[in-house]
Amino acid sequence: MKFFPQAAIAVSLTLASVASWAATPDFPHLATTGYGEVVAKPDMAQFSVKVVESTMTAEQAKQSVDKSVTTFLQALQSEGVKSEQISSSNLYITPQYHYPKKGKPELVGYRASRSITVTVEQLSELNRYLDMALNSGINQVDNIQLKVKDQAVYQQQARLAAIKDANSKAESLADGFGMDVGGVWRIDYNMSGGQPVLMRTMAMDAKSESNSYQDSTIIIRDRVDVIYKLD
């Protein structure tokens, strides 16, 4: 098949905004986006909890929050949780006002809060640590994130799957148009900053709740944008 400069053929697979790439080649080419994903079972977790107290004075609010945080931290340490697995925020105290329809705002008390984030190296211990937090006076669970220890290994597998997907699409499209892939001209890769997608099997009752996290799976995804030369 002959190619004429005035009628160069460019085949584009626009599964992503490949057309927005800054540099566009002036020769016959094909652009694809490859996607890859790997399913993994979580084996660790990270959770964030918060204690929030409202009292008449700032000192009372501070003392109440400090007591709950100290009790929880001591409980974690007694279970062998390392200090590098625990992080806590500064104490926040804000005045609370009542706003009547008429007149000036009235100070009615103070609200104090403090957050703690814990990394759980053994997923089976997650529920026990959460119970410890609640028993210590922590009154809010902000976030529970299931993870895998070998995140980099799974990410590499997803990346290789994305590369394979891009190559497969390129070969299929080129063959469909009676052309051949002549090599790679450009690769654009920006690892996604998003967290793995959690697919959780919900517990049916409280007794099975402790096993529901182990029944969950995590989908780790990656993508790569490639421009190929066409012969």
Task: Give the helix/strand layout.
Elements: E1 11-12, E2 29-40, E3 44-55, H1 58-78, E4 86-88, E5 92-98, E6 106-120, H2 126-135, E7 140-147, H3 151-176, E8 181-188, E9 197-199, H4 209-212, E10 217-230
Parallel strand pairs: 1-2
Antiparallel strand pairs: 2-10, 3-6, 3-7, 4-6, 5-6, 8-10, 9-10
Describe what this molecule looks like in 3D.
It is a single chain. This protein is α+β, with helices and mostly antiparallel strands. The protein has 2 domains: 5-35 and 150-192 and 221-230, 2-Layer Sandwich (Translation Initiation Factor IF3), CATH 3.30.110; 44-147, 2-Layer Sandwich (Alpha-Beta Plaits). The chain contains 4 helices and 10 strands, in the order βββαβββαβαββαβ. It has helices at residues 58-78, 126-135, 151-176, 209-212, and strands at residues 11-12, 29-40, 44-55, 86-88, 92-98, 106-120, 140-147, 181-188, 197-199, 217-230. The strands form 2 sheets. Strands 1, 2, 8, 9 and 10 form a 5-stranded mixed β-sheet that branches. β5 and β6 form a beta hairpin. The N and C termini lie close together (9 Å). Residues 1-22 form the signal peptide. This is Oxidative stress defense protein. Pfam families: SIMPL (PF04402). One of its GO terms (biological process) is DNA damage response. Keywords: Signal.
Concise synopsis of the structure shown:
By secondary structure, this protein is of the alpha+beta class. The chain has helices at 58-78, 126-135, 151-176, 209-212, and strands at 11-12, 29-40, 44-55, 86-88, 92-98, 106-120, 140-147, 181-188, 197-199, 217-230.
